[in-house]
Design a protein that fits this description.
- The complex is a heterodimer.
- Chain A contains five helices and eleven strands, in the order αβββββββββββαααα.
- Classes of the chains: A alpha+beta, B mainly alpha.
- Chains A and B meet through helix 2, helix 3, helix 4 and helix 5 of A and helix 7, helix 8, helix 9, helix 10 and helix 15 of B.
Amino acid sequence: MMRHSKQFIITVLVLSLAAFHAAAQNPSDLLIGEVLVENTSGLTDDYGQRNGWIEIFNTSNGTVKFGGCYLSDDKSNLRKYHIPTSDRAAQVGPRQSALFFADGDASKGTFYTNFSLRKGSTLYLVSNDGRTVIDQIEIPSDLPADYSVVRVPTGVKGMDFETRVSEKPTPGSYNGDVDAKTKSQVMKEQDPHGWVLTLIAVMVVFTALLILAFIFGWIGNANKRGQEGPAKPKKEKKTADGKMTPEIAAAISMALSQELGGEVYAAIALALDDYLSGGIHDIESMVLTIKPSQSSSWANKTQTFRQLPR
Amino acid sequence: MSTIIENLRQFWYFTGFANATWQNLAMILIGVLFITIAIKKGWEPLLLVPIGFGMIIGNIPMFPGLNIGVYEDGSVLNTLYQGVKQGWYPPLIFLGIGAMTDFSALISQPRLLLIGAAAQTGIFGAYLLALLLGFDPNQAGAIGIIGGADGPTAIFLSSKLAPDLMGAIAVSAYSYMALVPVIQRPIMLALTTKKERLIRMPAPRQVSQREKIVFPIVGFLITAFIVPSGLPLLGMLFFGNLLKESGVTRRLAETARGPLIDVVTTLIGLTVGASTQADKFLTGNSLKIFLLGLLSFVIATTVGVLFVKFWNLFLKGDRKINPLIGNAGVSAVPDSARVSEIVGRESDPDNHLLMHAMGPNVAGVIGSAVAAGILLGFLG
């Protein structure tokens, strides 16, 4: 019973994690990035006409498929335009945009909606269940011609969005500052000689390793205290002259555990040279065994032989 | 007859002889030199032989457009090169390094971690110098990481920060790693007194299996939380070590530290070598990178040794540290630790520093991965 409970908990945990991962790259990562209603001098569609358009932006760092989702400007009919599931083009790359022309004629293709945009309305992006509103954006009733409503990424991570009215629409392009500088360019301006980065980096490296040193110092002390407790007396390895030689034990142990040709020979040679030349050994006199790596059944050649039919 | 001559002439245009430039020949000679050094001197042969032969492959003069060059999309070499370009190979090598590294020396004397931290100054010293020489910060960061003395980390970071310089950076890093004994020894001797070189350190205590298992988990959590951008390297390093120390994944550990790392090392060496095509490699920037790489090793060694000397001012009795292990803070495992041992025994044949030097040596691996994560976070 207990075993089944554990299995159930682990299964739920794994499925939860999988669901969490999946959620990182699904239509819920989409948002309506930009909308333009009255297009008099801007982008033309594939048929040479100027219509309003809707830009869908993928906020995630993975590709998102949006086939099966819906676009609508009517809250009472969220399934107004169904984005075809079968179109392989119905996907958008990481931090990229997809553009829909809203000319009211869906027969022109996947990226043409069956409704036209209206000022003062609200545009909905709806999940493939037809009920869940992924995102919505209100179109001002006084939006001038050739102006767009745009969501601009803000914040350090670029995951917060600010809604603005823009006189310079950017259909299909990144809505943020297209002239934004790279981190390297920013560092070049802010820290031209590199001292600030150097100081911070050295501090961080020291801090990280200092924390590790403290923790393992503490664990080591706790371990030693545990060993010094009333536990059963351990048999100490002694050398021929009766003195403790942790060096030889540590050196050989290290060398053997590494199982590396060069290291094995170097460490063993050093240990032997230092201690064994005087006839001192840890356990067996002048016997040192190096155990070669054991082959797995996959690598075992005897198991790959095939008996010939007689 | 004229048709035959015309076809032969066309064939001639496709041959390496018709397309050869002196730069190609110079790079081929450098490749041969690498192979010779590796075979004759035995310096880093596992790396220098593939890199040297890769240099020869990458510099065979060819008619462009045959879809065989390392920089031509879809070619075999280009496909293999993606592991370098996209940064897959370095984490896989770190998996193998983790699976073959025994952190006991470090766990038994955790204070030696600080020497590994101090030696990372070489990275940032080279970063400052690279900025002085006019490199952009991202390029300077990629060049600086040579001072970590860690080839996979150098490739990983340069592929992210300055892909155009990656060939020169990788070759520089591996070349100087091969030259660690030559570079470090005179610096160590110059900066230490005879008395300091004779310092004997107490033997490290034996480390329990539990501590060895806890180390990769705690080590990963702390370093990854502080520098998440170092995740690919740190995660694989500590994961590999957990495979080794857990005691229940022997086969996985053996694969990671055996066949896997061998395959990846072969591919990374060959493709990095092939990426050093003359037109991209023989530039003024490459010369500057080689100079900065050398200086980064010098700085790392100097600061490592001086840090121990400074630290010793506050230590008493048998707590004092032999400054000859200060050089081992760079992560050229285990070469720099061997240098400590060899130089130490020149002064006192009975004073073995190898075990003590392995502490800062493996700390250097962690430290350089952390430093790479910081540079990637700030400049990537």
